[in-house]
Write a structure and sequence with these properties.
Helix content of chain B: 55-70%
Largest interface: A-B, 26 and 20 residues
Largest sheet of chain B: 3 strands, antiparallel
Number of domains of chain A: 3
Number of domains of chain B: 1
Order of helices and strands of chain B: HHEHHEEH
CATH topology of chain B: Arc Repressor Mutant, subunit A
Number of helices of chain B: 5
Largest sheet of chain A: 4 strands, antiparallel
Distance between the termini of chain B: 26 Å
Strand order of the largest sheet of chain A: 1-8-7-11
Oligomer: heterodimer
Structural class of chain A: alpha+beta
Structural class of chain B: alpha+beta
CATH class of chain B: Mainly Alpha
Radius of gyration of chain A: 33 Å
Strand content of chain A: 5-15%
Strand content of chain B: 15-25%
Distance between the termini of chain A: 106 Å
Number of strands of chain A: 12
Helix content of chain A: 40-55%
Radius of gyration of chain B: 16 Å
Chain lengths: 564, 113
């Protein structure tokens, strides 16, 4: 019966204890305590009600008891000040100096940054009990992290009309970032203020706050500009790149100043024996907190993967997509095979895809004098130490009436087993998101194909969105698509002449990074004659194909069989 | 005469360890024992005692066990070897402190006289 009377107060006192088991233990212990008091009061002649009331009253300030109990039984990191400061410095270093170790497999730089962010949040949480400003720094730091991740997570699912929502979230995260730094530095300043006289050195908290404001301010401007310009990528990237050159030195300065401030603060507090109150063991709790964060990330990643695969609109490419008869295709493959290129490396790309884009020319608009021509170009570029070789072939076909009515292109991936050539392409790894493909200030004027390889089959992927240049020639300036494992991107500006343009990329999240592979184009009118005059193919030629060059030098490298 | 909170703050853990070192006790009993032995100079409240007990337990200076008493569960605390070491250290610390305070106060009294 008495337990009922103490229920409310016991619930309140123990409500700050996170572990259910510990909460029950503390509750039982306090109940015994209250009952002892109650029984003493009864023995002193009080009636039941008064005895209960006095037992509760004698407890004193219940809020204080609740707070102290929650402190002792907290399951979050309650690290010492020095450890928390070291953690803060470590997290900041990882965030600032992203280390790309195995760049071609996963984007380790982004992962390093991610780990750094989590460590910083844990450190801020450890510090948050020191004073109100540091508590706010933790709140805003968490808000910044959360907003960014939400923006990333919702991007694939958003229709293009609300493209601005992630940008707004990014802007909000930048604002939270600025506020976080402000509270962090001024919170640390308050901590060191009592030791100002002893420490002698001046710690530049104000300056550190200022320099840390510039980088997020730049991104606020950038995302605002992207919203205003409706994601006009080339325009933005041109301006943004210019501004980035200005912001980079400031970013470096802010990193150095911040590190100096952290080290000086830690030293000042340490030298003055300022030790954060430790009331319980900290290591287990720190590990528990980090594990909790890791566990929280798992469902996010799962949702990510689910979105990634749900959104992908793919189907298998078949020979029928290419408007070419199977016999013809086999014959071409046979010719290529004689030059060491196995059929499995020859992919035909359909005209139906090519014609979706600006500047594409229907096959019926031009004629070839021969049944087919094989036009070759070689891409050879290295990025991050990887070299890529690929051969692009455009093939036109003549129908029974001698009119070219279809054409297709062949992409030949060069692998080690072909005459010693080495080539590889980078596959993106899940989880993946939509991202904007752009080639910077250059304009991609027509063919954009997105292929992926699944279980050995080549799949075609529909672009989710295509962006055009409204001011000049309505050329394609970018595409938005669902990134998938093993995806290849075909992208081009000018057929053959300028096929070396690489695609710049923007990653919007952690793990995916894609490199351009090669360019794939149909044949523009102005090059038609030249193309028709070229029937050469060589797997050895390394120089760029140049339409101004003397084409005769290629003529003896490969003569494909003519049907006429 | 009650001692100010500030003054008592540093010695609470010492008092708690000291009374438990004599025999195993539960919370209410600890409060009453300290109150009695100090002739009501020290009156611990629950908000101070239990967090200290739980902290000392987490630091392995104390161990606890449950017993059935008067029809309900009761938690007893027992001092450990580590707790005895801690107690000895704190006692020594306290002696040094009180001797030094005594010296200063004695000196001041002498000067005033």
């Amino acid at each position: 019966m008495q337990e009922h009377n103490f229920d409310k107060i016991l619930d309140f006192l123990c409500s700050g204890i996170m572990s259910k088991k510990e909460r029950q233990n503390v509750r039982d212990e306090l109940f015994d305590h209250l009952m002892c008091k109650y029984e003493t009061n009864i023995a002193m002649g009080m009636d039941d009600e008064l005895a209960t009331e006095n037992a509760i009253k004698d407890l004193g300030d219940r809020t204080v008891i609740k707070y102290r109990l929650s402190q002792v039984h907290s399951y979050y990191p309650n690290l010492s000040m020095k450890k928390a400061m070291n953690l803060l410095t470590l997290g900041f270093c990882l965030m600032s100096f992203q280390i790309n170790i195995i760049i071609n497999i996963i984007n380790t730089g982004e992962i390093t940054k991610f780990i750094g962010q989590i460590i910083m949040i844990v450190a801020l949480f450890c510090l948050s009990k020191s004073n109100d400003k540091l508590k706010k720094a933790f709140v805003f730091g968490s808000a910044e992290f959360t907003l960014t991740k939400i923006a990333v997570a919702i991007t694939p699912a958003l229709p293009s009309v609300v493209f601005w929502i992630p940008h707004v979230l990014y802007i909000a995260s930048c604002i939270a970032n600025i506020v976080k730094w402000f509270y962090l530095f001024y919170g640390l300043r308050d901590l060191t203020a009592p030791f100002k006289e002893e420490y002698k050195k001046t710690i530049p908290y104000g300056f550190a706050s200022f320099v840390n404001l510039l980088s997020p301010a730049y991104f606020i401007w950038l995302y605002s500009a992207m919203i205003v310009s409706e994601n006009s990528i080339p325009d933005i990237s041109e301006v943004a790149t210019g501004a980035a050159y200005i912001i980079i030195p400031f970013a470096l300065i802010s990193i150095i100043i911040t590190l100096v401030v952290f080290v000086m603060t830690s030293k000042c507090l340490w030298q003055n024996d300022h030790e954060y109150q430790i009331e319980t063991s900290s290591k287990k709790k720190a590990i528990a907190a980090i594990l909790a964060v890791a566990v929280a990330i798992v469902p996010m990643a799962a949702v990510d993967l689910w979105i990634s695969y749900e959104k992908a609109d793919t189907e298998v490419y078949t020979i029928h997509d290419s408007d070419i008869s199977e016999d013809e295709y086999n014959r071409i493959c046979g010719s290529l095979l004689s030059y060491g290129i196995p059929e499995k490396l020859v992919y035909s790309l359909p005209e139906s895809e090519i014609l979706k884009f600006e500047d594409s020319i229907p096959a019926t608009d031009f004629e070839y004098p021969k049944t087919y021509d094989l036009v070759y170009s070689n891409s050879d570029f290295g990025r991050y130490g990887f070299e890529f070789d690929a051969y692009n072939c455009a093939i036109g076909l003549k129908n029974e009436n001698g009119v070219i009515d279809s054409r297709f292109m062949v992409w030949i991936e060069y692998k080690e087993d072909i005459k010693g050539h080495y080539s590889d392409y980078i596959q993106i790894k899940p989880p993946m998101y939509n991202f904007i493909l752009s080639n910077g200030t250059e304009k991609c004027s027509d063919t954009v194909l997105i292929l992926s390889e699944e279980n050995g089959k080549i799949m075609k992927n529909e672009p989710l969105e295509t962006y055009y240049d409204d001011f000049f020639d309505d050329s394609v300036t970018g595409i938005r698509f669902q990134a998938k494992d093993g995806m290849l991107i075909y992208f081009g500006k000018n057929f053959i002449v300028d096929n070396s343009k690489t695609v710049t990329y923007q990653t919007v999240n952690l793990y995916h990074k894609i490199f351009p592979l090669t360019t794939m184009r149909n044949i523009p009118d102005e090059y038609k004659d030249d193309v028709l005059g070229l029937v050469s193919f060589s797997v050895h030629a390394q120089q760029w194909v140049d339409f101004d060059a003397d084409w005769s030098e290629y003529n003896d490298t490969l003569e494909l069989e003519e049907t006429e | 005469m009650k001692i100010s909170k500030e003054l008592a703050k540093g010695s609470t853990a010492l008092l708690v360890l000291s009374v438990i070192s004599k025999r195993d006790m539960y919370g209410y009993q600890i409060i009453k024992t300290i109150e009695m032995e100090s002739e009501e100079v020290f009156t611990l409240n629950e908000g101070t005692l239990y967090p200290i007990l739980h902290s000392l337990e987490a630091e392995k200076s104390l161990e606890s066990y449950w017993c059935e008493a008067e029809g309900r569960k009761r938690k007893y605390y027992k001092i450990t070897a580590k707790g005895l070491e801690e107690l000895a250290g704190r006692e020594q610390e306290w002696k040094t402190f009180s001797t030094a305070v005594g010296k200063v106060l004695g000196g001041a009294k002498l000067a005033g006289a």
